[in-house]
């Protein structure tokens, strides 16, 4: 029943998309030839000829939307992901239309109309999908359009899956129960009951109209996986596998096909790709040069103030651990009194630390003391965006205490990063900081870097945790 509903929803989405495309196209034509731009327009083609193009645009865009997963259920898709896919599909569609026009020699169709169509279509399609999303979410909260699920195996993965379903009733998932051989029937977890043994699947599958089965076996029972999958697939019920080792592999594992043998890489680092690394390096070089030019008056002023208020060097260099666990000297404006190196190495600054100078306290609070790191970026020791580098003493300490800590050294350390813009700077949770660093490493894109740089600018450089 649910599968039939899903097919109907997909068909409805396609009809809505066709309507939205037609409206967007007509609006673009109206603005170009009737509205404010009409004075510079000429009807080289008739209205009928323009409308005839829709006969090809609509099916073409249906194919593109299908390719960009816009007809898969939205219940567990992020809204930003849906918007991103709409933008990508429309941008590609625009390129294809222009390419076809050029190759067919059709140079008299208005290009401005196509640009406006692309803009309107993105805006209206996003609005239509959000309207459908909120209507379905409201229906699911009221018990309609729900998906019936049984979990096979009581494990950590089963509990985490139930946690997320309970926290998100708008998804419309209803867990009918859990089957397990080791936990007694009647055991309840957040309203979900263990209803029997795994062997009961042979009775439940024919008797119940389930929409989905989620295999949530514990690691010790994986030897039964093939048997259970075969049983579920024989029934025709959609089956998904939720691994009990999600703390080991990332949410988006990178897989390889070795002559038919699937291989899962424990961690996918986009910056291990040569092209990605080259693009990021170019961005770092250009960005650091521009930042040095813009910030040079501030840096000159800081040099004067440091020299006038405290004896000692202007620049303080500190050994840090960077890319591939290699040590480098990181530059900062000196913000503390001169102290023995043996004392400095093994201690963070604390609140009201007497070693910090007056000018130094201001520089630390505003992050101005970190401006010389722009030269580290230019040299290639650091990047504009990345995990913050740490001193060798603390790296040795944290690598034993915090799981996956050393993964951060697979990329260049950064002047700013995802952890920093989320508030994890200075005297804050190292574990939370590493979680943010790992998320950044696994999900890196140029767009993500730009977002972090903008957040750094708009949130300001004030560091409340810097002493």
* Biggest sheet record: 6 strands, mixed
Question: What characteristic shape results from the CA principal axes?
Answer: flat
**Unreliable segments (pLDDT under 50, ≥5 consecutive)?**
none
Note the total helix count: 16
Strand order of the largest sheet: 3-4-2-1-5-6
Taken as a percent bin, the fraction of beta residues is: 5-15%
Judged by helices, strands and strand pairing, the structural class is alpha/beta
The ordered H/E elements are HHHHHEHEEEHEHEEEHEEHHHEHEHHH
Mean pLDDT: 83
Number of strands: 12
Provide the gyration radius in Å. Answer: 29 Å
Question: End-to-end span in angstroms?
Answer: 61 Å
Helix share bin: 40-55%
Fill in the keyword field for this structure.
single chain, 467 residues, alpha/beta, six-stranded mixed sheet, two-stranded antiparallel sheet, 16 helices, flat
Short description:
By secondary structure, the chain is an alpha/beta fold. It is built from 16 helices and twelve strands.
Provide structural commentary.
By secondary structure, this protein is an alpha/beta fold. Helices cover 51% and strands 12% of the residues. It has 16 helices and twelve strands. It has helices spanning 2-33, 47-52, 54-67, 79-104, 111-141, 156-167, 201-207, 225-235, 274-309, 341-345, 358-366, 373-379, 392-401, 418-421, 430-442, 446-459, and strands spanning 147-152, 173-179, 188-189, 192-196, 212-215, 238-241, 254-258, 261-265, 315-321, 327-333, 383-385, 414-416. It has a six-stranded mixed β-sheet. Helix 6 (156-167) links the parallel strand 1 and strand 2. Helix 1 runs antiparallel to helix 5, helix 9 (274-309) packs antiparallel against helix 11 (358-366) and helix 9 (274-309) packs antiparallel against helix 12. It is flat and about 80 Å long. The model has no long low-confidence stretch (mean pLDDT 83).
């Amino acid at each position: 029943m649910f599968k039939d509903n899903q097919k109907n929803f997909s068909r409805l989405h396609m009809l809505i998309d066709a309507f939205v495309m037609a409206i967007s196209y007509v609006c673009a034509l109206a603005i170009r030839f009737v509205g404010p731009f009409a004075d510079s327009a000429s009807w080289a083609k008739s209205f009928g000829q323009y409308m005839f193009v829709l006969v090809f645009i609509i099916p073409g865009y249906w194919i593109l939307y299908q390719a960009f997963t816009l007809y898969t259920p939205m219940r567990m898709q992020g809204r930003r992901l849906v918007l991103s896919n709409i933008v990508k599909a429309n941008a590609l569609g625009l390129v294809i239309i222009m390419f076809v026009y050029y190759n067919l020699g059709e140079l008299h169709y208005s290009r401005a109309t196509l640009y406006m169509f692309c803009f309107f279509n993105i805006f209206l399609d996003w609005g239509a999908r959000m309207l459908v999303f909120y209507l379905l979410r409201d229906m699911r909260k009221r018990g309609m359009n729900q998906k019936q699920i049984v979990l096979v195996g009581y494990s950590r993965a089963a509990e985490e899956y139930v946690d997320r379903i309970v926290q998100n009733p708008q998804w419309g998932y209803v867990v009918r129960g859990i089957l397990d051989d080791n936990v007694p029937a009647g055991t309840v977890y957040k309203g979900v009951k263990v209803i029997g043994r795994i062997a009961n699947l042979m009775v439940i599958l024919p008797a119940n109209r389930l929409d989905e089965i989620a295999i949530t076996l514990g690691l010790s029972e994986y030897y039964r996986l093939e048997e259970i999958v075969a049983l579920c697939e024989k029934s025709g019920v959609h089956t998904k596998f939720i691994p009990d080792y999600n703390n080991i592999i990332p949410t988006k594992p990178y897989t390889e096909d070795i002559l038919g043998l699937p291989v899962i890489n424990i961690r996918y680092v986009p910056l291990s790709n040569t092209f990605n690394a080259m693009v990021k390096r170019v961005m770092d070089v250009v960005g650091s040069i521009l930042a040095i030019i813009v910030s040079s008056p501030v840096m000159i002023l800081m040099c004067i103030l440091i020299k006038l208020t405290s004896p000692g060097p202007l620049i303080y260099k500190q050994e840090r651990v960077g890319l591939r666990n290699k040590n480098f000297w990181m530059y900062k404006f000196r913000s503390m009194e001169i102290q023995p190196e043996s004392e400095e190495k093994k201690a963070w600054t604390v609140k009201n630390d007497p070693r910090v100078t007056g000018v130094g306290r201001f520089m630390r609070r505003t992050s101005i003391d970190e401006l010389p790191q722009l030269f580290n970026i230019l040299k290639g020791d650091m990047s504009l965006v990345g995990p913050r580098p740490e001193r060798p003493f603390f790296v040795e300490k944290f690598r034993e205490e915090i799981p996956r800590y050393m993964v951060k050294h697979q990329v260049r350390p950064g002047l700013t990063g995802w952890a920093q813009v989320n508030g994890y700077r200075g005297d804050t949770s190292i574990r939370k900081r590493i979680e943010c660093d790992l998320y950044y490493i696994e999900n890196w894109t140029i767009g993500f870097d730009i977002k972090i740089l903008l957040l750094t600018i708009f949130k300001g450089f004030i560091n409340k945790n810097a002493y």
